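Bumping with the actual sequence this time:
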Amino acid sequence: GSPGGLDNTVTMGIVSGLKRSSEEVGLYDKKVEFIQTDAAINMGNSGGPLVDVVTGKVIGINTCMRYNMEGTSFAVPTNKVKSIMNDLAEGKQISHGYVGIYTATLTPEFAREKNADPNSNYGVIPEANGVIVLHIYDDTPASAAGLRRADVITEIEGRKVGQAAEVYRIIDSAKVGSPIDFKIIRGDKPMTIKVKPDEFATRLRMAKEQREQKLKQKMDKLKQESLQDKASALPPDMQDKVH
């Protein structure tokens, strides 16, 4: 890289993790499985290559860092770059599936711990390996399909899942608009639910528009209240002249 304009700067870039999901990294709007390294990344100078010292091959593009984790950075694998670079060069949108669930990895030990807690609000959790649904977001494919909180996902499209990251990975690569089968356990009853993924980028845009609309409404309300307060402080014959 060239931090601060210093060409040919090299750092170690020791790899300490593969397939770090965007959820683990904390970049929820970036649908990439990152390589975790300790390569130095400074403000405004990402993009340098992550090189395998044995083969000399570029294995990743150093991309981002965590502000609260000094010495920890993340690179996009070159396989991912190769799979999308032509589409990006042509101005095409990279599709990502979205269903609207928040999950966690479930183990029998975790289930027994929660089931033994008299204050648990999950009901009776199956003592199985899988992925438990912690939250269903409103007005999403998951809520429309009938998925519920505390459902335990065991398979998606015939692929067994034992880690939350695997669920996100399968959903991310799913074809938008085509139903996919979720095999779940609800209480003690196994069932299959079909969920039709939405386009993640569309959901992001909708969420942004909703936030902007709420902010505008809040600012308009504050402005109106401010004008009313100013008007009430004036003599009665001048109050109707405040605009």
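The tokens above came from a reply further down the thread. The radius of gyration is 24 Å.
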